[in-house]
Structures are given as C-alpha cells and as structure tokens.
Amino acid sequence: MGRLIVFEGIDGSGKSTQFARICARFENDGVPLMRLTFPQYKEPSSALIRMYLGGEFGENPEDVNAYAASTFFAVDRFASFVKVWRDFHRAGGVILTDRYTTSNALHQGSKLPERQRPDFFRWLYDFEFRLMELPRPDIVIYMDIPAEEALKRIKTRQALTGAASDIHERDEAYLKECWRCGAQAADFYGWRRISCLKGGVPRTEQDIHEEIYQILTQTE
What we know:
Layout: E1 3-9, H1 15-28, E2 33-37, H2 47-53, H3 66-90, E3 94-98, H4 101-107, H5 117-131, E4 139-144, H6 147-161, H7 172-189, E5 192-195, E6 197-198, E7 201-202, H8 205-218
Parallel strand pairs: 1-3, 1-4, 2-3, 4-5
Antiparallel strand pairs: 6-7
Enzyme class: transferase
Protein name: Thymidylate kinase
Organism: Sporobacter termitidis DSM 10068
C-alpha cells in the first residue's frame, strides 16, 4: 500500500496553501505522487454536496444533521478512490490530499454537543474506513488557527476574489464551533497539529512549510 497524507483545517487556516507548497516540493524532490482535493466539485459525485452547500436543503448548516451531511461527502470520496487513485495507492504511490474524511469531523461534528462528538468521531472513521473500505490516512496535518484569525483571512480572500460564500463560510458562529470541534478531533484522532500563530502573531508561510516538510520527511 502507498502513503496517504491529509491536510486539514478550518476555512481560512492556510491549509490549501501549505498543501500546494508541499506537493510542489515533493515533486521537486522527485517523489512520485498524486494530489487530490475534496470535494470534487466538477464531478457528478458531488451533486448532493453542491446542493447542500448551496442552501438547497436549508440556509443553515444545522438544517442537515451531521450524519446525513457526512454521507454526501463520503460518497464523493468513494467515487474518487475507485475511479482515480485506488490503483496508484495500492501500487505504493504517495497521495497528498487537501481535505478528506477528516473534514467531516470538523464541519459535521461541530453540529453536535461536545459530549456527543466522540461517538460521532468513532462512527465516522468506522463508516468510511471499515464499511466503505476507503484508506485510512497515514498522517493528518492539522492547521491550528484561532477562528478570529481565520475569519479575517476569509473576508480578505473574498474581497480579493469576489467569490460568493457558501453556507459554511458565511456563518461565523458555525466556523467558531468548527474550530473548537477541530481541536477536539485532533486530540481524539492524534493528528499532527501545526500552530499557525506564534506569540499571537501569524507565522510566515515559509516557516510553517518548513515545519510540515520536516514532519513528513522524518515519518517516511
């Protein structure tokens, strides 16, 4: 089997930036790899996700319960695994992915009271990794950033790109709960936490990148 490396974090954490930098550096190092991003918005398998995030099932994230919404994203991952990367992974290839099952832990687990989340976390991994037979991550890089800082970044990004917000991004209370749930999930699953701030000040992209690179090359 190959190696599955997952980048996770709340919206605005810098997860996608660090994912892209590590992919580029691994490719420069000559590491044969495949890069993935979830959800697959351009694929038919994401139809229910697009309906959900577009507000067709309700304008608030809580309008669809954690378990139901999780299945939308799981089906999209299953389709990707079977059609795109199963053979590469089984042949020993390195897979790097921006989001994975781990995103349901943050975004859907946040809909539940804190005391109910451990049961959800157990169900989630059992559902996707045992019942659906998707690969379990070898390592999860969790971008740990305070919700307030993430919100600043989201607003800056939207002002620059003019992109419309989905039901997750425009709900600040929901994002803050995702941050709290993310910390709980990271502890529960044993993810590698990468602090995006040092002494209350945002770290540089390069500083964070070097830490992640060292972690991934030391655990090969």
